């Protein structure tokens, strides 16, 4: 079972609000180095509520690294448990009046996506299969990985290859390379 969802989020807001959030985040992650049940609330400056942390924040923990890009911009990146911290982003955006743009992916659970929220209102929430996410974010890498997976024997038949999400999107050259790679592996 997969466990780590990779997250990247760009936060934009006022210097005062980002300063306040950053100081709370540093304090909240000081002991364990990541956000978990109580420390999510601490980073938000909110009283702890009883309930399932996954239902509140979309994840059980967030091993978050923050990078201050400027007075009005901050990056959050890191792994979270099983899913992205979308609920946390919603609260974060609402509490600190931020615009947040994020991407996330989890190959083991087969998803990736994009999420945007401004002042607590969701403006984009799109999740797709991991293959589709990879194709849309970096199709050159997706093709390279597909061919590499073929060469390592992840496919037992040509039908599995030609039924893959990428197949209809490949150029004739890449399709020929895929089949040749499969035939090489099988021989």
- Number of separate helices: 8
- Main sheet characteristics: 6 strands, antiparallel
**Which class best fits the helix and strand makeup?**
alpha+beta
Radius of gyration using CA atoms only = 20 Å
**Helix fraction bin:** 40-55%
The total of beta strands comes to 6
- Catalogue the unreliable spans: none
Spatial order of the strands in the main sheet? 2-3-1-4-5-6
Mean pLDDT: 95
Distance from first to last alpha carbon? 32 Å
**Fraction in beta strands:** 25-35%
Q: Secondary-structure element sequence? A: EHHHEEHEEEHHHH
Shape: elongated
Topology:
Elements: E1 4-12, H1 15-29, H2 37-44, H3 53-57, E2 62-70, E3 73-81, H4 86-96, E4 99-106, E5 111-118, E6 121-128, H5 130-137, H6 139-151, H7 158-162, H8 172-186
Antiparallel strand pairs: 1-3, 1-4, 2-3, 4-5, 5-6
Describe this structure in words.
It is a single chain. This protein is α+β, with helices and mostly antiparallel strands. Helices cover 43% and strands 27% of the residues. It contains eight helices and six strands; from the N terminus they run E-H-H-H-E-E-H-E-E-E-H-H-H-H. A six-stranded antiparallel beta sheet has the order 2-3-1-4-5-6. Strand 5 (111-118) and strand 6 form a beta hairpin. The longest helix has 15 residues, at 15-29. The two termini are 32 Å apart. The model has no long low-confidence stretch (mean pLDDT 95).
Index terms:
single chain; 187 residues; alpha+beta; 6-stranded antiparallel sheet; 8 helices; 43% helix
